[in-house]
Amino acid sequence: MPIYEYRRPDGSTFEILQSIHDDTLTKDPESGVPVERVFHPVAVHFKGKGFHNTDYGTKRRNRELEKSAKDGADKHDAKMADKQAEKKKDKKADVKPAAKSAD
Q: What does the alpha-carbon distance between residue 88 and residue 95 come to, in Å, rounded to a whole number?
């Protein structure tokens, strides 16, 4: 049979041994004040090969990340170079040749 924890309005708590099939207490059996059941988070353990494969580093994974980062940086550099070339091209197109004066 599980032990359940209950909280009184003043913040104090008590534990009571109850069957799973018993109804939740609404009043303290000793004093008769209203109580509420206290719930605690369940402990979760992720076990098993590859369950969270990306969470744990391996030599192979580190190599893949480094390669990916390098490839991403190369793509970014190429994109920035294209943008700069476009800007230079646009600046040259905006510059109008000086009009010849009639001498």
A: 11
DSSP annotation string for 71-88: HHHHHHHHHHHHHHHHHH
Q: Please report, for the chain, the start and end positions of each structural domain, with discontinuous segments joined by +.
A: 1-40, 53-93
Instruction: Answer for the pair 75, 45: CB distance below 8 angstroms, yes or no.
Output: no
* pLDDT tens digits along 57-82: 566 667 777 777 777 767 777 777 78
What is the rounded distance in angstroms from the CA atom of residue 18 to the CA atom of residue 29?
A: 13
Amino acid at 93: A
Cα–Cα distance for residue pair 97/91, rounded to 1 Å: 13
